[in-house]
Design a protein that fits this description.
Blueprint lengths: L1 H4 L7 H15 L9 H30 L3 E5 L3 E4 L2 H7 L3 H10 L4 H5 L5 E3 L3 H15 L4 E6 L7 E5 L2 E5 L11 E12 L2 E6 L5 E6 L2 E13 L6 E11 L6 H5 L3 H13 L15 H24 L7 H4 E6 L5 H13 L4 H11 E4 L10 E3 H7 L1 H21 L4 H7 L2 E2 L5 E3 H7 L3 E4 L2 H9 L3 H7 L4 E3 L6 H7 L2 H11 L21 H26 L8 E6 L8 H16 L3 H5 L4 E6 L7 H17 L9 E6 L4 H7 L5 E4 L11 H7 L3 E4 L5 H8 L5 E2 L4 H13 L6 H11 L10 H8 L7 H20 L1 H13 L6 H13 L11
Parallel strand pairs: 1-4, 1-12, 4-11, 12-13, 13-17, 17-18, 19-20, 19-22, 20-21, 22-23, 23-24
Antiparallel strand pairs: 2-3, 5-6, 7-10, 8-9, 10-11, 14-16, 15-16
The structure holds ligand 26V.
Length: 824
């Protein structure tokens, strides 16, 4: 009987229009006569949302019924960006919506642009999680994401007088993509104390008592796969004071304010995304966020498992949990606590289950990013968890001692507890010990963690516990959605859009590298994308850039290790060279637009100084009549996912120039090449594998190698170290006040001249500038350039996140896709 009523969803333009209009008039209670673009967006989003819900419900039923092993991806960040365009493309109805919206008097691009980015992440790590969700749904894996529903995402960036200013990102005013599940909640405890006693039956009971309770409420976000009925779930937790906790006594006795203050304290937990990336600061609220989210997720997962009535020993046959960095490491401790304290399993039995359930992905080797929490802090906030951590450590150290009885130092080196003042819990060590696999995110990075930060654990566990899964990106968003014309051209050449599901099919493009007409269209599309970016620059910055110039782009979080300073010093070097040239010499130059974008962590002063310098250089260079179109310097404000979709397809060259050995992988490098741009880069992160795939002749590599970094740093302090003379000229130019207030940039210069140049800017400066010159030469031969571009794209198949997810599924999670054949 239910079947008769179950909804089907629109498929035609007229059906879409009637659905959208119905939502505008009823759900939104708006009259069509004053329907603006925002209302049209809302109606369209709600119409597509209805379609997704149908498949979403079916997917959840199918997954429950199939009763297979599931994967849970725990990430504090999901940098999803906009959902509508993606939903339209994934269900294959974008053209229907486009025509329908045109009937109603709207351009689909304007409607799509109404949507607020879901910006629940900082950068690479959060965007990777979003690409993974897309691939897991597209490949029909039963996989859920678990995260936090921040009220404020990553701040919005404005530039005022050349300085970064942070604006809060309140994004939940109207969010059609989330569904509150008020019936799905978990009470999470903090503080309190641990009571151990023996009960009447002589059993040891451990109870964690008298804590403060905060309630986690689930908000679900549908994650549609491309060209499949699978719609997976992203579950985000929101914090509220538990109804049991709200102090009615206080309230009734007139202490309204204090009762409300308690309520607000609880809501603070999920209020804001921490805007640091790669810097750990040990704030209690951050630890509260981590535990709140781990506890809610784990209880949800365990509750689902218990419905199956299976034995506990089957837990890891049903459940795999992946830890996105160490942020969810407490999940390991929480599962052990659930099994031992609440379900009454023995310690060893529980620990076997725990370690076969978890996998841990490391995303950085930077020491300042490795999480450590002070023992007193954990003791106070999570007293029972601290005991469990000590027990885990004790058992681990005993096993190490047995195997390496003569190596006393080893015990201290691998101990979860760092014997400092105060003592610290090393979260990465706990994550390694509590997982069955540990992976890095690109080959070099995975090798580095084995030989540096986790070396001792390779000795303890052997090398097989450590593995590599090179990152990937979803070609749906980063090719098809961001660059529809290129996607269409590729499809027309290779016969279908199948490459969006099997990216290795791009290799069918290679036979066309000499096809004149094809190359012309290829170049035209790049040009059109540059025009689109030039328009964006015009509307946001108020000046024009020449789309015929070489577009050189570096967009990513601002960080000393990513070396935006190397780029801007190179720009100044170029500026000085132009100034010293005769008009004849200038005529031979390739005009360039240097585009920068990215946010600095609000407390990261040096990164903010770099932003300031870029903006000041822009102010001077862009209005210098000697320079004209030969050089423009643009800082694009508020770089985010939706802006990346405009920026990435528009590059001729993009910069991935981190000090070798510091960038774990990078993923925008993959996005730029997939869109036909060239790369200037160091031998770092995934640049190395990109080079291997596309060929050395198709990438501009420079700089010192990772294996030489340590010696170079040593030499800076103890050798006869001299700063590169060309770079000294750049510094002199800055110090003269060419770009205003020279004092403002002193620290940037002295970091290199006086404080050891930790990121090897000076060592790599020559080779960087020379490589930029090679790029100018290469760009002059447009035909050869386009050949490189096409060849590179044809060889990018490896970098799809589909390949990456299949590797995780086969080698870490041991899960299989669900059969959806009869649903299609
Ligand atoms: C670390 C921390 C430290 C504590 C404060 C908050 C916070 C937030 C994020 C992080 C993560 C830093 C690690 C990270 O983002 N790694 C990036 O991961 C990308 C995906 O694997 C990779 O492509 C980038 O190279 C890597 O920098």
């Amino acid at each position: 009987a239910w079947k008769k009523f179950s909804p089907k969803g629109f498929t035609t333009k007229d059906e879409f229009e009637s659905e959208a209009v119905k939502h505008i008039e009823t759900t939104l209670a708006r009259s069509l006569f004053n329907c603006d673009e925002l209302a049209a967006y809302s109606g369209t989003a709600l119409a597509f949302r209805d379609r997704l819900i149908i498949d979403w419900n079916k997917t959840q039923q199918r997954q429950s019924f199939a009763d297979q092993k599931r994967l849970y991806y725990l990430s504090l960040e999901f940098l999803m960006g906009r959902a509508l365009d993606n939903a339209m493309l994934n269900v294959g109805l974008k053209n229907v919506a486009k025509d329908g919206l045109a009937d109603l008097g709207f351009r689909i691009e304007d409607i799509i642009a109404q949507e607020h980015d879901a910006a629940l992440g900082n950068g690479g790590l959060g965007r990777l999680a979003a690409c993974f969700l897309d691939s897991m749904a597209t490949l029909n894996y039963a996989a859920w994401g678990y995260g936090l529903r921040y009220r404020y995402g990553i701040f919005k960036q404005e530039i005022q007088d050349g300085y970064q200013v942070e604006i809060p990102d309140y994004w939940l005013d109207f969010n059609p993509w989330e569904f509150p599940r008020h019936d799905v909640s978990v009470d999470v405890q903090f503080y309190g104390w641990v009571n151990k006693y023996t009960n009447d039956e002589g059993k040891q009971i451990v109870s964690w008592q008298d804590g403060e309770i905060v309630t986690a409420t689930a908000y679900d976000v549908p994650v549609p796969g491309y060209g499949t009925p699978t719609v997976n779930n992203l579950r985000l937790w929101s914090s509220k004071a538990s109804s049991g906790e709200f102090d009615f006594a206080k309230f009734n006795s007139g202490e309204y304010e204090s009762a409300v203050a308690d309520e607000q304290r609880a809501e603070t937990i999920s209020a804001v995304l921490y805007p640091n990336d790669n810097l750990e600061r040990g704030k209690e609220l951050r630890l509260k966020q981590q535990y709140f989210w781990c506890a809610a997720s784990l209880h949800d997962i365990v509750r689902r498992f218990k419905k199956s009535k299976r034995k506990w020993s089957e837990f890891s046959d049903q459940v795999a949990i992946q830890l996105n960095d160490t942020h969810p490491t407490l999940a390991i401790v929480e599962l052990q606590r659930i099994l031992v304290d609440m379900e009454g399993l023995g310690w060893d039995e529980a620990w076997t289950i725990v370690t076969s359930t978890f996998g841990y992905t490391n995303h950085t080797v930077l020491p300042e990013a490795l999480e450590k929490w002070s023992v007193p802090l954990i003791q106070n906030l999570l007293p029972r968890h601290l005991q469990i951590i000590y027990e885990i450590n004790l058992q681990f150290l005993q096993s190490v001692e047995k195997r390496f009885p003569k190596d006393r130092d080893l015990l201290g080196r691998v101990s979860i507890i760092e014997e400092s003042q105060p003592k610290m819990v090393r979260m990465a060590y706990l994550a390694i010990i509590g997982s069955h696999k540990v992976n890095g995110v690109a080959e070099l990075h995975s090798d580095l963690i084995k030989t540096t930060i986790f070396k001792d654990f390779v000795k303890v566990y052997g090398p097989d516990k450590f593995t590599n899964v090179t990152n990937g990106i979803t070609p749906r968003r980063w090719l098809h959605q961001a660059n529809p014309r290129l996607s269409e051209l590729i499809a027309s050449k290779i016969g279908s859009y199948e490459f969006l599901k099997d990216l290795t099919l791009l290799n069918k493009l290679e036979p066309f590298v000499d096809d004149k007409e094809f190359k012309k269209e290829w170049a035209e599309i790049k040009y059109a994308n540059k025009v689109r970016l030039a328009q964006h620059i015009q509307t946001t910055k108020g000046y024009s850039v020449n789309p015929k110039a070489l577009f050189d782009i570096q967009v990513k979080r601002i960080h000393e290790y990513k070396r935006q300073q190397l780029n801007i010093f190179g720009v100044i070097h170029r500026y000085m060279a132009i100034k010293s040239m005769s008009p004849e010499e200038r005529k031979k130059l390739v005009p360039r637009v240097s585009v920068f974008g990215g946010k600095a962590a609000p407390g990261y002063w040096m990164a903010k100084t770099i932003i300031h310098l870029i903006n000041k250089v822009g102010e001077v260079v862009n209005k210098d009549p000697d320079v004209g179109d030969l050089l423009k310097v643009v800082f694009l404000e508020d770089y985010n996912v939706s802006k990346a979709e405009i920026i990435v397809p528009a590059s001729d060259i993009s910069e991935h120039i981190s000090t070798a050995g510091t960038e774990a992988s990078g993923t925008s490098n993959m996005k730029f090449v997939l869109n036909g741009g060239m790369i200037i880069g160091t031998l770092d992160g995934a640049n190395i594998e990109i080079t291997r795939e596309i060929g050395e002749q198709n990438i501009f590599l420079f700089g010192n190698l990772s294996e030489d970094v340590e010696d170079l740093r040593h030499h800076h302090f103890y050798g006869d170290y001299k700063v590169n003379p060309e770079l000294v000229k750049v510094f002199d130019c800055i110090k003269k006040g060419t770009f205003g207030d020279e004092g403002a940039f002193g620290a940037l210069i002295s970091g290199i001249v006086e404080h050891g140049d930790y990121y090897l800017v000076s060592d790599d400066f020559n080779s960087y500038c020379q490589t930029q010159d090679l790029i100018d030469e290469a760009y002059k031969d447009q035909d050869a350039w386009v050949t490189k571009s096409i060849t590179s794209v044809a060889r990018m198949g490896f970098f799809t996140s589909d390949r990456c997810i299949n590797e995780y599924a086969d080698t870490i999670w041991n899960i299989e896709p669900l059969d959806v054949a009869e649903e299609k």
